[in-house]
Each structure stands twice: as C-alpha cells, then as structure tokens.
Amino acid sequence: METNPHILTLKMFSAREYNINVSSISVFLFHGGIRTLALRIFNNLVSYSAQRLLGENNNKLSQVFSRISSGQRIQKSSDDSAGLMTSEALRSDVRTLRQGVRNLNEGISLLNVVDGAINEEVSILIRMRELSQQSATGTIGATERQSTNLEFSAMRTELNRISKTTEYNGIKLLDGSLSSTASNQISIQFGLDSKDDNNININRAVNVTSLTALSLNLNALSIATQDGAVKANEELQVTMNRLNKISGRLGSTHNRLERSLNNTLTSAENLTAAGSTISDADMASEFAHLTKQQILVQSSSSMIGQANLFPQGVIQLLPS
Questions:
Q1: What is the pTM of this model?
Q2: Ranges for the Flagellin C-terminal domain (predicted)?
Q3: Which residues pair with 201 in a beta bridge?
Q4: Which fold has domain 92-271?
Q5: Phi, psi torsion values for 251, nearest 5 degrees
C-alpha cells in the first residue's frame, strides 16, 4: 500500500512503554519528512516569547506615558544623546539671551531716567533765558529786575538739585558718573559671550558730563542788572547747546539699545523654536503611539494566556 505524501501522519508513543520522562516529552508532526510543530511541557517557548514581548510593550507604553505627561520627547540621554546635548546647549543660549534682554531693558530704563532729567533741565534753562531776556530790556525798572532775578535764582537752584539727586538704582546720573572719563564705566551685556560686539559702554556712548549749576557756569549769573541779564542770555544759549548735544547722544544710544533688544528677542525666539523641534514631543504622534501600545499590551497579555494552554494538548496524546 502506497503512502500519500500529502496526508499528515501522527506517530504516537507511549511514555510508559518507552520509559520516557513525561516532563520532557515532545511530539512531532511530520509532513513530507519536515518537522512542523513541537509540543513541550517543560519549556513553553511560545509563552516565554509572549512574555518577553509583553515586557517590551509595557516598557514602550511607559515611555509614551512619560512623553505625553511631560511634553518632552527626550527624557534621558539614552533616548537621544545627541539630541539631548543639542537641546541643552540651545536652552542655555536661550536663557543667556533672555537675560540679555532684561539687561537691555534696564539700560533703556536708565537712559529714560537721564533723558527725562535733562529734558527738565532744558525746560528750566528755557525759562531762565526767557527771564534774562525780559530783564535785559530797558523798559522795566530795578524793582522788576529784582523780582525777576529771584525766580531766576530759584530756577538755578532747582536745576542744581535735579543734577545732584537724579539716580538709577543708586547710580548718580548727572553728576559726571556717566561721562566718558568716569572711573566706573557702565556697560550693557546682551550677547552670548563677553566680546566687545556684545556689550555697549554707556559712558562712552552718551558722555553725560556733570550738569550741576557750577559745572554749567551758572552760579555767577545774575539778571539783577541789565548788563548781567545780557551776559546771562548769552551764557544760557551756550549751556542749552551743550545739553542738546547730550540729548542727541542719549537718543541715538536709546535707539541702538532698542534695535539690539529686538534682535536679541528674535534670536531667542528662533533658538527656542529650534530647541522645541528637537526636544518637545509631537503630541499627535504620541497619542497614536499610545493607542498602538495599549493594543499591543492587551494582545500580548491575552496571548500569554493562550500560550499557557499549549502543553495541555500533550494530555490528549497519552493513552487512557
């Protein structure tokens, strides 16, 4: 009788007849002489494989949970060592630039204080010049000139007070502390390093010399007489020109700081975007991965239960 090679043949052995240990019995199915399946009860390889895959899927699911909860794609160096180094370097640069932004804002605030005080002094000089012009005319008498001189002196006293008391964070501003020859220079640092291109020396830029009445040669002026009023008028014109030049330097430096501020803000924004691309998690992608890993964990758990039932098939092969 010929054997049909397409018919699956099962050969069964009695464990008791051949004195075989049941814990290691293996039953093979042959098809055309090729082994296609092995049933084992001592080592359930299918269950081991399913358990390994379950562990891997649980680890991946934990990583997805961590990325979603933190919003960060890189949690530790093993996730992406090169990306972590790059993102940390960018984060450091961004924080440095943002501190530079605060420094520039403080520098602008300092210049605003100086500018406001000088504008007030200019207004005082304008009034003093107006009074000197009034006193210089020959149509008023000595009494009127005395009254006018009182206001002139009061204006000079106020100008002197403003020069001596104007300050920013304890730094005197109109007593010569902002002159280019001052011993303590004020620099605004705003770049990523300490090179000269990344800081502005306020003293050299604005050169605000002492603006007290003594420094401006105003103490000796008097408009109590007509000749004194004429002299005061000329001296006040020179003083106003001096303050106007300082105001021009203040305005140009103020505009420079604003341009530097805008550029620093733009650089910080672009570096933040670059760091975000590297380190931030793509939430849409992570939620897709979450669904995937949850399904894989559930299916792996289910398959472990199914795989644990495989060895029970051996019982059916033993004779009753």
A1: 0.71
A2: 239-318
A3: 187
A4: f41 fragment of flagellin, N-terminal domain (1.20.1330)
A5: -65, -45
